Amino acid sequence: MKKSLITTTILVISLLSLNSAFAETPQTTLPSAGLTPASPFYFLDRLGENLRQFFTFNPEAKAKLQIEFAGERIAEINVMANRKQPQTKGIEKAKALLLSNVAYAAEIVNQEKASGKDVATLAKNLDDEFDAREKLLAQTFLEARERLLAERKEIKDKLLKDARAAGDTAKVAELTRQLNDTRDQADTLKEKNSEIKKDLRTEKEKIEREMNKEDREKDEIEQNQQDQEEQKQEEQVEAEEAPEPAEAPEIEELKEKQEKSEINAKQEGSNVETQGTSTEENE
Fold first, then answer.
1. What is the dihedral of CA 180, 183, 188, 189, to 10 degrees?
2. What letter does residue 33 receive in the DSSP assignment?
3. Please, is 199 exposed, middle or buried when counting C-beta atoms within 10 Å of its C-beta (0-12, 13-18, 19+)?
4. What sign has the CA pseudo-torsion 20, 24, 27, 29?
5. Residue 56: how many CA atoms within 13 Å on its side-chain side?
6. Which of 230, 235, 232, 236 minimizes the C-alpha distance to 197?
């Protein structure tokens, strides 16, 4: 009975792997992220993937299974990048796993080629799928940065303006710190995107080398077009960022006004006390 149950489980896992691996068209949406590397229970997610991979025996299906895993890594990055405080350590771990997915797919392609098989079609299909996920990754970071820059705009256009009008130096200082932190977070995400994109393409090149010449040339043109489109989107996002206000001088000015007010208040209090004393002496 136990042996039959184990056999059935293996067959179900294998079928699921095959069905999910052979997608007819590249994925254009992110899957559910589930647990992320920032979770202490992430090892359970990884255990499930390792079991699926172990029980997928067809090399081509195993290579294409890496496509699905890569999509999940990007979904995890999407969740972590859109936290109130982006989880950069978790993003770095997801990045390492994403690159290992692509590297393992390339390794299988090379093994299949070494066995005497024509892998040009397999390489092209894998590359197309990974290209689609690279676009999803770029969109993930772009949307996360748009969110952060929108927060900055809200702080500058309303909250900071109101605090200055009220002469609240403590609030102005706190909002200024938030502005700087948000800008740093947005810049960090931009750097992470560039790093992952560069490393991802390095790994993909190992697959692209096995494509035929015509497909390689077409892929290069498409990558250049993608880079140009992403650059336009980045420029648009940055253009929406309003010029930085002169924060520090205004803070100092507000502090000076507050100090003068306190000094005047003390002087007025002192004058009142002096007048009171003089009146008592005259009486």
1. 150
2. -
3. middle
4. negative
5. 23
6. 230
Q: Would the pTM count as exceeding 0.85?
A: no
In 109-175, the DSSP E strands lie at: none
Distances (CA, A) of 48 to 23, 44, 54, 55, 136: 21, 6, 10, 11, 24
From 129, 132, 124, select the one nearest 216 (Cα to Cα). Answer: 124
Using alpha carbons, select from 154, 130, 39 the residue that is nearest to residue 90. Answer: 39
Q: Which DSSP symbol is given to 31? A: -
Chain mean position to CA 251 = 33
Q: What Rg value do the Cα atoms of the chain yield, rounded?
A: 29
pLDDT in tens, 136-178: 999 999 999 999 999 988 888 888 888 888 888 998 899 999 9
* Interval 186-233: pLDDT, tens: 999 999 999 999 999 999 999 999 999 999 999 999 999 999 999 998
Judge contact between 79 and 33, C-beta under 8 A: yes
For residues 167 and 254, the answer to whether their CB atoms sit within 8 Å is: yes
- What are the pLDDT digits (tens) for 233-262? 888 888 776 555 444 455 555 556 666 666
Quick check: 17 pLDDT over 50?
A: no
